[in-house]
Amino acid sequence: MSSRAIVVDRPGEHRLVTGEVPVPGPGEVLVRVASAGICMSDREVYDGHRDAAYVRYPVVPGHEWSGTVAAVGEGVDPALVGRGTVAEGFRACGVCERCRCGETSLCTGGYAETGFTEPGAFADHLTVPARLLHPLRDDADLRAAALLEPSAVIAAAVRTGRPSPGERVAVVGAGTLGQLAVQLLAASNPAELAVVDPRAARGQLALGFGATAALSPSEAESVNGSFDLVVETAGAATTAASSCLLARRGGRVVLTGMFTAGAVGIDPVHLSLSQLEVRSVFGAPSSAWSDAVRAFGLGLLDPAPLITHEFPLERFGEAVALVGGGDPKTGKVLLSP
User: N or C end of the chain: smaller count of CB under 10 Å?
Assistant: First the structure.
């Protein structure tokens, strides 16, 4: 039996390779991949724009995925075979101070992550440590479950933001992260849940997920200082600063988007006078993964409507070109081996 994988040898160069099915080592499982999402981080790996400290070429990308356990290594419960599952991407050490405090996404034992430094899911199979698995319900939609990695990031942001019933909440950005944020935040029963995005169609989609208002960035300026909680998901040059302006005095801002060099800074005068609480999120700790998987199982999260394109492994080049290509009709792009 053989197994295929997309290998990015260096920026801009990839190939589809066929080899033997990986064998899970002690404490590992072999997963047959069902679906794998392509995100901007994968595009950065392909284009060579990811920080060199956070990628190791040649690499099999793919950190957003779902699949079925096909085999287990020594010391792993054989009852896992046949289970639908997702798994955490960070290979946290589990013993450093940050891991002991539950902050596994801030592990100080050295950076290792599936799809960036370890073989990922743009393949028929992958192996992962069994301790990172989050098994799914038997009736889980594995196609939709491929979006549980970004869902876990948003679950981390929502945990950090501590929404309370009756609060006024804004989500800045209506891409995949923003739409997932709207779904999770709607479950907290806010008095108002506004989404801010220049793309009207994206705003309309958010209304279907529970948003009460869809605003353009210029329209949002008229309600600056109104929101108890602002969750930023866009990672655009100006959205960190504009999110802080949306929050009321004493409000809370959670920055979830991945910003690039040159982004507009937050005004320190406004920050101090407004007594804002500003937090950022990098990846997702184990607890947020658990939150996302539970919410998915309960139907509070429905990522399936965000998927707009699916490709086989052979069409990876076409698929990755769509991500970040600027077409407003492009939502989540999947590879489905």
Answer: N
Residue 260 pLDDT > 90, yes or no? no
Q: What top-level class would CATH report for the domain 160-280?
A: alpha beta
Burial state string for 166-197 with b = 16 or more CB within 10 A and e = fewer than 16: ebbbbbbbbbbbbbbbbbbbbebebebbbbbb
| Contact assessment for residue 114 and residue 107, using Cβ atoms and an 8 Å cutoff | no
Residues carrying CATH 3.40.50.720, the chain: 160-280
Domain with CATH 3.90.180.10 in the chain: 2-147+303-335
Is CATH 1.10.287.3610 the right assignment for the domain spanning 2-147+303-335? Answer: no
Among the listed residues 51, 53, 83, the one whose alpha carbon sits nearest the alpha carbon of residue 67: 83
Can you give the pLDDT at residue 262? 87
| Pairing verdict, β 28-38 and 332-335 | antiparallel
**Residue 267: per-residue pLDDT:** 93
Q: Residue 126 in contact with residue 164, Cβ under 8 Å?
A: no
